[in-house]
Amino acid sequence: MTVFTKTPKGQEEITHRTGIVGQRARRLLILIDGHRGADELAAMSADDDIATTLSQLEEAGLIEAVANAVPVAVVPPAAVAPAQVGAEGGQAPKTGDLQLARDFMMNTLRTFHGPYAKLGLMKRIQSAPDRDGLMALYEEWLASITETRIGRKRAEELTGRLMAVI
Fold this sequence. Notes:
Blueprint: E1 4-6, H1 8-16, H2 23-31, H3 38-45, H4 50-59, E2 63-65, H5 95-113, H6 119-127, H7 131-145, H8 149-165
């Protein structure tokens, strides 16, 4: 599967709208993140002729194919199942539960901010050694989520789902 990434010229086009490409190609350019394959981009953009549009972007020097890239499937927050709670409810979370919590936090950050924003926070979340480490990052995670309008609306729900896993 071919994966594309934006070139510096592509980033410039998104920032300043130079008009090199039309609106359909620009929408596709915005979706390109270095992780999504052509099939996923086609589904997201509803572009009937994705190959032509990708070719146009590549010829304009706005994107380039990534060699040996493996697409990363980002699981939407709704797909993360809450962890099973033990009979006493006070049990320490299992390692898998902690990884589920890490994944949930990182996926929500990607959902609300994109794959390249909040990388420092994502790295700290990924390297948190235990529940206390994740809880120490909770406030920063919540503040990041609530920076967006949709995040503010869903903050209570997302917090509840995270706490069910942690």
